[in-house]
C-alpha cells in the first residue's frame, strides 16, 4: 500500500512536471530599434476647441523593429498628432514653445525606448517604460526651462505612437491582429498585475473582442468657429467638401453630432446647442438624432453645466433628450477641483472623463466625483486604452471613443479601439472635416473608414495583423 502511495505521488509529480514543460511560454518580443519622424499638416479650415483655433498640427510617426525569442523579426508603425493646445495647454507659454517641447520629448522618448532590451508583451514593455518616460518629461522641462512642467497627459500623447508601433510589430511578428493577443495564452500576467485585485484571474480578452464589429456610429464634430448656415460663410472654400452643417448632414448621412462649446459664455453655449438641433431636425427630420456636448473642461463650475442643461431643456426639449453624454465639463485637475462633483449632473446625462484620465487612479477618483463614463483615446496609448476599457466595463461605466483630429494610421488605430471594445457608443473622427488631404493616401485601402455615407464607420475590415493599418 505504501509503495503504491509513493508511486502515485511520484506519478503526480512527474505528470505535473511534464505539464509544466509542455505548456508553452507566452510569446514575447524584444525591441531592436525605434525610429521616428515629424510630419507637418495643415487644416482645411481652423478647428476651435478649448478656446484655441488650430490651423495646423504635427504628426509624430514611429517605426518599431522587434524580434521574438525564436528569431522572428517584424516592423510596426504608429502615428499621432501632437496637438499641444490639448495635450499641453498653457496661458504662459506660446504655441511654438509647447510644440517644440513635445517634439523634443518625442525624440527623447524614442532614444529612451531604444535602450530597453527586456523581452515582454507590449503592455508590459509600456508599463515598464512609462515611469522612465515621465522622468524624461521632467528632464526636458528643466532643460528647456519651461514655465510649467510637461504634464502626464502630454507625455502619454507623445509616447502613444511608440506604444502603437510596438503593438503593431508584436501582432505582425505573431501573424495576429493586436486584439487577438490579449488572452492568457499570450499575456504573461492577468489584469490584477496592472489594475489591482478586483481583476484577479481576468485577462484583457474578457473585455476586448478579438473581432471588430461591422460598424460604429460616427460623431460629426461642430467646432466653435464652424459655419452652421450659408449666412455664416464669408467666402466659400470651394474645394468640393461641405461647408455648412446641413451640407455635412446630407453628405455623410449623419445622425450623431459632437457639439463643441465655450464653457465661458452661457448664452452662446445654449444658443449654439439649440441652433444645431434645429438645423439637424430640419435637414433630416426622421433621424433619431444623438448629440454629445463638449466644453473641453472650460466650465467654471458644475453650476454652469446644470444651468446650461436646464435652459436647453426649457428651450428645446427634444434637443435636450438627444444629448447622449457630456464630455469633461470642468478643470482636468480633479484633486484640485474636487468641489465640482458631477453627481447632480449625472442624474440628467452620463458625464464622461476625458482630459483627466491618465491612469487607474484618476479613473477611480472620477467615479468618486460622479463621472459615469470614460472616453477612450488612441492618443493616450494602445496599452492604456485597453486597460481603461477593461476598468470602465468592470465598473459599469459609459464608453465612447474620442480622437485628436487623427488622420491616416492614427484614425485606423482609433477606429480599431471603437470596433473591438464592447459597448462603445460611437467614435469622433473629424480629420475628414479638417485634415482631408492627410487621409487621401489611406482612402483606397480603407474606404469604409475614410468615406462616410450613412453616418457610420465601416470597421469589419480591421482584421489585419498588428493594428491593421499597414
Could you give the topology of this structure?
Blueprint: H1 2-22, E1 29-49, E2 52-68, E3 73-81, H2 84-87, H3 95-113, H4 122-143, H5 152-174, H6 192-195, E4 215-222, H7 245-252, E5 256-260, H8 266-283, E6 290-294, H9 302-315, H10 317-321, E7 323-327, E8 351-353, H11 360-368, E9 373-376, H12 382-394, E10 398-401, H13 408-420, E11 424-428, H14 431-434, H15 436-439, H16 447-450, E12 456-458
Parallel strand pairs: 4-5, 4-11, 5-6, 6-7, 7-8, 8-9, 9-10, 10-11
Antiparallel strand pairs: 1-2, 2-3, 4-12
What does this structure look like?
With 470 residues, the chain is α/β, with parallel strands linked by helices. The chain folds into two domains: 29-193, Enolase-like, N-terminal domain (Enolase-like, domain 1, 2-Layer Sandwich), CATH 3.30.390.10; 198-458, TIM Barrel, CATH 3.20.20.120. The chain is 39% helix and 19% strand. An eight-stranded parallel β-barrel has the order 4-5-6-7-8-9-10-11, surrounded by four helices. Strands 1-2-3 form a three-stranded antiparallel sheet. A hairpin with a 2-residue loop joins strand 1 (29-49) and strand 2 (52-68). The chain is globular and about 65 Å long. The protein starts with a helix and ends in a 12-residue tail after the last strand.
